[in-house]
Amino acid sequence: MSVPDYAQLLQRFPDDPPPEPPREPELEECCGSGCDPCIFDFYAADLNTYRAAAMAWQQRHPDVKLEIR
Predict the structure, then answer these.
(1) Cβ atoms of residues 68 and 51 within 8 Å
(2) Cα-trace Rg, the chain
(3) Domains in the chain, number
C-alpha cells in the first residue's frame, strides 16, 4: 500500500483533511543562546500535537496509510 501525498488526501477528504506536520527548523534558526524555550522546544511540542492529531485522523480513516513521522 503506497502512501498518498497530501494533495491527494485533500481531494479525497475535503471535509476532514489530514493534519500537516510542522516544519522542522533549520539548525541556523537557533540562536545558540540557550533560550528557554528554544525554537526546537516549540518544534517538539508542535510535533507531539501533530502526531496525536495524525493518529486520531488515521483512526477515522483506517483504509488510508498516513505517514506519521
Answers:
(1) yes
(2) 15
(3) 1
- Smallest Cα–Cα separation from 54: which of 21, 28, 11, 24? 21
Maximum C-alpha span of the chain: 46
pLDDT at 4: 75
pLDDT digits (tens, 9 = 90+) for 7-66: 899 899 999 999 999 999 999 999 999 999 999 999 999 999 999 999 999 999 999 988
Q: pTM of the prediction?
A: 0.84
Which residue range(s) make up the domain with 10?
1-19+32-69
Q: Determine, yes or no, domain membership for 1.
A: yes
Residue 3 grid cell: 502512501
| Beta carbons of 63 and 15 less than 8 angstroms apart | no
Q: How far apart are CA 39 and CA 25, in angstroms?
A: 7
